[in-house]
Amino acid sequence: MKSLLLPTLIAAGGIYLIERFCLPSVNPYYVTVMYAAGFNIIMAVSLNVINGFTGHFSLGHAGFMAVGAYASAGITCKHIEALRGALIFCPEPVANSLILLSVLLVGGVCAAMAGLIVGLPTLRLKGDYLAIATLGFGEIIRIIINNIGSLGGGRGLPNIPPLTNFFWTFLCVVVTILTLRNYTRSSHGKALLAIREDELAAEMVGINTTRYKVVAFVMGAFFAGIAGGLFAHYNNFISPNGFDFIQSVIFVVMVVLGGMGSITGSVLAAVFLTALPQFLSPLTRLMETWHLAGDPKNVIYPLLLIVMMLTRPKGLLADKELSWAGVQSVFLRLRRGHAAS
């Protein structure tokens, strides 16, 4: 607990200073990209616990994001005035923050329950069978939402209160990274790595593989639900098409590109792939000039995966993590090499 509290408080102070003094001078377009990077970091890191550390292949992570988004947005859209009335004695920013945290928790718990419902029967499967089962779950969630009129159905859910801000978005990013880092470094994390390397051997030494896999699946789903709630209350509009199979594939690409089992790699890959479409905008305009349909990132992403599989099959950082001590050692080696030459 102490190893989580102090870094979180330090990060909260730094995020507040950035929001207070730096953010007003940043182009709003780039701020939007920063928000998108924050949501994607939470999704990629939480998926890495399932795909990277446990060694299973989930293709339905966007479904958990959808559950969290619709559960939290459904509450605020229908009961925002009642919630604000209950917090009438609090200043408006404090009341909005309390409401946001409450509905994020509800969204995360609903997504975790969905993860438990899916995980118990499907995590006994392996390989392609598990991927197909999780893919089916994501599509089932999307179809169910499409047919719930109170949540907007296929038209989407508009007029979601804009409660998400920079501070809570990136504080959630920090809490997600620290929590999952501590979890994967604990004895539970070592059990997950044992399952990844050889599930049969892990069972032989007494590890309850099904229980550990389900716990990892539920944790990943919980944080995906948190990301969904943040996304909904920032975008102010959500629709089932925003949580389709392609979105799940993009999250998988982030995990694979960064490195299966590397939280730092997931963060770097999420930031890179979020910023990449901004650099591809000239190519998009060129395609429009030539009357070519399609999104160039749908070509770039597969090419990146192919190149990565050919050159670094384990991803950018494999299962390694970046640390300040590691960065210092790299600089020292570079200085020594420069001095020797």
Descriptors:
341 residues; single chain; globular; mainly alpha; 76% helix; 14 helices
Model description:
By secondary structure, this protein is mainly α. The protein has 14 helices and no strands. It starts with a helix and ends with a helix. The chain is globular and about 55 Å long. α3 runs parallel beside α5, α3 (61-86) packs across α9 and α10 (245-258) packs across α11 (263-279). The protein has one domain (2-21, 28-340). 76% of the residues lie in helices and 0% in strands.
Q: How many DSSP-defined strands?
A: 0
Contiguous uncertain segments of 5+ residues: none
| N→C terminal distance | 48 Å
Shape verdict: globular
What's the domain count? 1
Assembly classification = single chain
State Rg.
Answer: 21 Å
Order of helices and strands: HHHHHHHHHHHHHH
Q: Overall mean pLDDT score?
A: 87
Largest sheet: none
How much helical structure, as a percent, in the residues?
over 70%
Strand content of the residues, in percent? under 5%
Number of helices: 14
Structural class: mainly alpha
What's this entry about, in short?
The protein is mainly alpha-helical and 341 residues long. The chain contains 14 helices and no strands.
Chain-wise SSE layout:
Elements: H1 2-22, H2 28-53, H3 61-86, H4 92-122, H5 128-146, H6 166-185, H7 187-197, H8 199-204, H9 209-235, H10 245-258, H11 263-279, H12 281-289, H13 297-311, H14 324-340
